[in-house]
Amino acid sequence: MAEAQPSSPLFKSTAPFDDPKADTILRSSDGVDFRVYRVILSSASPFFKTMFSLPQDTSEDSKIPTVPFSETGRILDRFLRIWYPGATTAGFDSLEQLADVIQLALGKYDLQYLAPILNRQLRVYVENHCVSVFAIACRYGWKASAKLAAKQALNLDLPSIFNSTAANPYLRHITGDQFQALLIYHHACGKAAAAAGRLLPWSDAEYAWNKCTVTSCAACGQYSEIPGRGRVVPRAWIFTYLDEASAALKQRPGANVQNPALLVGAQSKAMSCSSSSHGGYHATSPCRSHGLQDLSKFVTDKYVPAVNEAIKGVLLQI
Ligand SMILES: [Zn+2]
Ligand SMILES: [Zn+2]
């Protein structure tokens, strides 16, 4: 048998894998020994049961069988700690490490009952690694997590999604159809979110942009019929905002439409409502007195829920 490499100075097995009464040693590829009980491993996985039914190598030290593993000590440790009785869970250092452990547990050693725990762990990484999490979730058939990751990807524009596919080791395990489903979902959400604003009751008569009659305040080319008031021509600045927000949502369907950068153009137009020289109306500009307040209320109460609703209506086809 080939000599194991010397123990990594960075990693040493700890309790419960240092039990002197254990009957088997699992030796990692970098020479870390894990002392375990065969009966525990056999009952955990058919893979181990089969392995221990074969003649064991007891030629080395300590007279107990040593089983060589192709995983590093750190990976083996994280893997064992998810399920080995008496072990405290160590958590994961990175998505890469978690992905290795998922493949070990579900792919190689067939511990399918660990799937819910690993799926939960995967979600920890969704915020910063949505494309990778999407791919891993698709690979193992975790649709709810794939959906969560696709939804998170709405905060990115398409060029950023393409960037995160470069040298991504997880995408090769999913089909082209699955990746395309992510892109189609993103595109469809962008379209639905971008359209949401124009369908809203922005024409509510109480809003400042509909109340304003200051002649110098630019009016919009379109009007709305408001019950009890007839035809109302809203001030153009509300559409300045809706158009900019819509463009932002088309690129990034998860864009925050309450972002001050999106509001500032409309705000400055609203605030300049009565500043021109049409005498007499200056004191009664609803845009100036209530424009910002109404816009903020409209965005919070009507626009944000409408965008969320529009996105909720888009299905991820995986
Ligand atoms: Zn207009
Ligand atoms: Zn006005």
Beta strand %: 5-15%
Task: Give me the count of strands.
Answer: 5
| Helix and strand composition category | mainly alpha
Q: List cofactors, ions and other ligands.
A: zinc ion
- Order of strands, widest sheet: 2-1-3
Q: What Rg do the Cα atoms give?
A: 30 Å
| Count of DSSP-assigned helices | 13
Q: Mean pLDDT, nearest integer?
A: 88
Q: Characterize the biggest β-sheet.
A: 3 strands, mixed
Whole-number total of structural domains:
3
Question: What's the end-to-end separation, in Å?
Answer: 47 Å
Domain BTB: 22-86
Organism: Favolaschia claudopus
InterPro entries: BTB/POZ_dom (IPR000210), SKP1/BTB/POZ_sf (IPR011333)
Pfam families: BTB (PF00651)
Could you explain how this protein is built, in words?
With 318 residues, this protein is mainly α. The chain folds into three domains: 1-71, no CATH class; 91-174; 178-219 and 231-272 and 285-318, no CATH class. Helix content is 48%, strand content 5%. It has a three-stranded mixed β-sheet. Strands 4-5 form a two-stranded antiparallel sheet. α9 (176-196) packs antiparallel against α13. The longest helix is centred in the C-terminal third of the chain and has 27 residues, at 286-312. The radius of gyration is 30 Å and the shape is rod-shaped. The model is unreliable at 1-5 (pLDDT under 50).
